[in-house]
Design a protein that fits this description.
Elements: E1 4-10, H1 16-34, E2 37-42, H2 47-53, H3 59-68, E3 70-73, H4 87-94, E4 99-105, E5 118-124, E6 134-138, E7 141-144, H5 150-166, E8 171-176, H6 184-196, E9 203-208, H7 209-218, E10 225-228, H8 230-244, E11 251-255, E12 260-264, H9 281-293, H10 297-313, H11 327-337
Parallel strand pairs: 1-2, 1-3, 3-12, 5-10, 8-9, 8-10
Antiparallel strand pairs: 4-5, 4-11, 6-7, 11-12
Pfam family, one: Iso_dh
InterPro entries: IsoCit/isopropylmalate_DH_CS, IsoPropMal-DH-like_dom
Protein name: Isocitrate dehydrogenase [NAD]
Amino acid sequence: MATTHKITLVPGDGIGPEVTAATVSILEAAAKITGSSFDWHTFDAGADAFAKTGEYIPKALYESIEANKVALKGPVTTPIGGGFSSINVTLRKKFDLYSNFRPVKSLPGIKTNYPNIDLIIFRENTEDLYAGLEVMINPDIAQSLKIITRKGSTRIARSAFEYAKKHGRKKVHAIHKANIMKLSDGLFLKCCKEVAEEYPEITYAEHIVDNTCMQLVMNPYQYDVILTENLYGDILSDLCSGLIGGLGLVPGANLGADCAIFEAVHGSAPDIAGQDKANPTALLQSAILMLHHLDETAAANLVQGALETVYAEGKSLTRDIGGTSGTKAFSEAVIAAMGAK
């Protein structure tokens, strides 16, 4: 008898509800074919939630994630230079989702300067400058504290090496700025080296973050698994996304010891919200990661195969990648490619 997976669903704002609806429709179609089943528990977050409940992250949302252990989240707008704190960062810290896992892999039919990209990024997700420890020293001086711990560094390093071992990856690069931040980044690098010694079959290397940016532009094929701190990982993830066509194509997973949140890593694009123009690929690929996490391998492979078929055919792509189709038409094409009726 198939397991019914209880999933906390956060549609987000801007284009979030559209790409979420498209993704859910595809997952439901796959479930009918593979015999899997989902029970969606839907909640708002951010400005929309505040307008309804007076809370940016309602208590009921926290309780749902804690109970279900798995969430799928669309993009939520984060105000710049003021306003409420990032919903993404808040949830990651609340549930100790220390590992931000971002595979960056080329899709068929998308022409870029770098074909056949296949990179994995492991980004520490709870500390560094994103710990949120900021203070105004005086009206003219603001201070942010960079927090790097042995615990945080060691566990993200082990996540990267364990993944490399399990999936036959041959090389892990630790990315740092220990030449300048000798104590904080130095501790991160020391922990990476210690973990690397436990995996002699995997090649270990170290690159300074600014040099890494240049190297990724010149020759991204020299990298396999990238292991890094929070801030550098945020920047490098976006850079690597550009190698395959942009943030609209790349999935993201936030993983902890007993909880996981899967999310699109792009913005909420309010300028095209409600116009049936948004590309749901990033959230759909995040949902595929979620299916693997739930051990729904058949459904994950079915959706991935259909998605790649749609991209290879190129007839139902959205405007951001040179097509003319809308969000709904794209999702219907993926469902058709699965053989669903």
